[in-house]
Amino acid sequence: MTTTRPARGLAGRIARRNARRARGRSILIVLMMTVPIMAISAVATVVASTVPTESELVEMTLGQTQAVVRVAASPGDGLEQSAGAPVIGYYDVPRNEVGVPLVESSGEVVDPASVIDGPIVGVAGLGVTVETPNGFRSLSASAGDVLQPAFEGRWDLLEGRAPRVDREVSVTAAVLESLELQLGDELRAISPETATLTIVGVHTVSQQPDSMLSLVVSEGALGSPTALEAAQSSEFFVLGDEPITWDEVLALNEQGLAVGSRAVILGDEPTPGAIPAQPFSEFGAALSYISIAAMVGGFFLLQVVLLSAAAFMVGARQQQRSMAIMASVGAETRTLRASVSGAGLALGGVAAVLGVGLGIAVGWVAVQVLDDGNARTWPGFHLEPISLVVVAVVAVLAGWVAAIIPARIASRIDIVTALRGARRPAPPRRGRGVLAASILIAGVALGLAGGILLVSLRAAETYEPFWDIVAVVLIIVGAITAQLGMLMALPAMLRLLAHAARTAHTPVRLALRDIARNSGRTVPVAAALMTTVFLSSFLMVIFGATQAETDRYYQPSAPHDSVQISTRFYDPAVERIAQVADREQLAQELSDALGGTKVR
Predict the structure, then answer these.
(1) What is the sign, positive or negative, of the torsion defined by CA atoms of 88, 94, 99, 104?
(2) What is the CA radius of gyration of the chain?
(3) CA angle, 66 as apex, 60 and 69 as ends, to 5°?
(4) β partners of residue 139
(5) Is the distance from CB of 174 to CB of 210 less than 8 angstroms?
(6) By the 8 A CB rule, do 340 and 319 touch?
(7) CA dist., res. 87 & res. 56, Å (int)
(8) DSSP 147
(9) How far apart are CA 400 and CA 415, in angstroms?
């Protein structure tokens, strides 16, 4: 117990001294590790910034109101909802196996204002077609009194005022820029009703990108239905200071109303009877992006570990004499190992700090560049501490793993030989070639088994999806196992290559003999190159097979070597599908464009 701490302290001091003495190699190792760590951290930060928190979801959906209400069913239909629906989560009406509601619906709907105490604002969505100097444009619009302080966070008034009468409109800045208009100008609408609208305000919508062309008009403007008339496609917002409790939500469910209450979503109140809330849709995409980033980043980190191991091996060779001196005065084997592996931990720690820090900075810049104003896509800059801590720990472990094998080799030294200055490489171990060949054969067998199973499943009429997953897993595991066997066989392959080149020119012979005799520092480099080619080939085969399957099941909508056009088109003036008036003229124009080809 009295010698452990001094030994560890000595190893740590030696590791730090060696890292400082070989600054060029240390900086190279840190930079190689920093790049993949930075990339993974940046992706994790960007992805975390796309997932809104519950408070952000409430603000972008409710603004400052107490609740949003949707007419989802008729009274007595047995409507059920998750606690956060329709802000987050789902609502549904119980149905039987064929999709028929279990309760016969009356078909009537309830006006939320008749069953909820407090002021309520209804908002209906509609499409508006406007006339511009360059033709017609279809814009989305919200009809309702939403440009007031209670809706800040969902609709925000930037300039001017809210529409007060049917012939007034508020627009987004994109409308002014796209149509070259200004506050106070007029906008001519031709659908759903012909009217000249005066622009009295400029606003933003949290759940729309800044480039979105949208309007806000008063309820019922342009002959559009009111929120109650279009109840099942409208939203009703509860104003005031009284929160909507879960018991009140359940009572409103009996009236066919789905309610997203601020107090319920942000509070800790129990919600008995709520249907299980499914994850917000963005969480699934976030996990997939993080998984892809982790896979790609992990692959590059593997290359870095292999290359760093070669660099540590060179350093260990250079330290052989000093380690022999330490061993000659009684240093233990673990002290010798720690003097090399400690450098890996130290450099991995530096790479973790730099990589995570730079990744956060790059992620912040990426969020600022990619943010299009849509709060649902970019709710704010977020950090995911758990992911970043895991990435940092992986970086430290990668540095340690890169140094652990050189440390083991360096600790097995012949003191007399090392003090004399000889650097004869260790002889190859017997049996390693047999083990490598066995692993390689096992990997190939697993890959073939998975491929045969996959082909057999594709030929079968019916099969369980579980076996599809088993086949794919066998292929992947077989490929990785075969790659591992190739890595273990690399030293023997290099020796065979050097033996085959014994009659080559002197420079070639010396170079091949050097890489074969010093496999400890050459194999990691060759392994990094081999795994890069392996993964590239593997992915190209997968993408090629996927494309071939897509081509096989492609069904053309017209014969090959032909052109097909539709004689129907959407007319924005009447918002209907219309037919081309003169089909013969269209056929003649098409024939002329195709060099006189017959058209039918």
Answers:
(1) negative
(2) 35
(3) 80
(4) 128
(5) yes
(6) yes
(7) 11
(8) S
(9) 25
Q: Rounded distance, CA 215 to CA 163, Å?
A: 10
Residue 11's pLDDT band (cuts 50, 70, 90): low
Rounded distance between C-alpha atoms, residue 209 and residue 150, angstroms: 21
Q: How far is CA 276 from CA 41, 51, 220, in A?
A: 32, 20, 37
Average pLDDT of the residues of the chain: 80
Residue of higher predicted confidence among 498 and 288: 498
What single-letter amino acid sits at 476? I
Query: Each residue of 274-326: pLDDT tens digit?
Result: 888 654 444 445 555 665 666 666 667 777 777 777 677 666 665 665 665 55
Q: Which residue has the tokens 């002014």?
A: 176
Q: What share of the chain is helix, strand, coil (3-state, %, to 5)?
A: 55, 15, 30
Dihedral (Cα; 225, 157, 260, 95), 10-degree rounding: 40
Residues 439/488, Cβ–Cβ less than 8 Å: yes
Query: What's the rounded Cα separation, in Å, for the pair 224 and 219?
Result: 8
Helices (H), 22-145: 23-48, 54-62, 112-115
| Dihedral angle, C-alpha 587, 589, 594, 597, nearest 10 ° | 40
580 phi-psi bin (left φ>0, alpha ψ -120 to 50, beta other): beta
Alpha carbons 154 and 67: distance in angstroms, whole number: 13
Query: What is the model's pTM?
Result: 0.71
Instruction: Using pLDDT thresholds of 50, 70 and 90, give the confidence band for residue 3.
Output: very low
Predicted confidence (pLDDT) per residue in 413-457, tens digit:
554 454 445 555 555 556 667 888 888 899 899 989 988 988 888
Question: How open is the CA angle 426-429-430, to the nearest 5 degrees?
Answer: 150
Helices (H) and strands (E) in the chain, counts: 17, 14
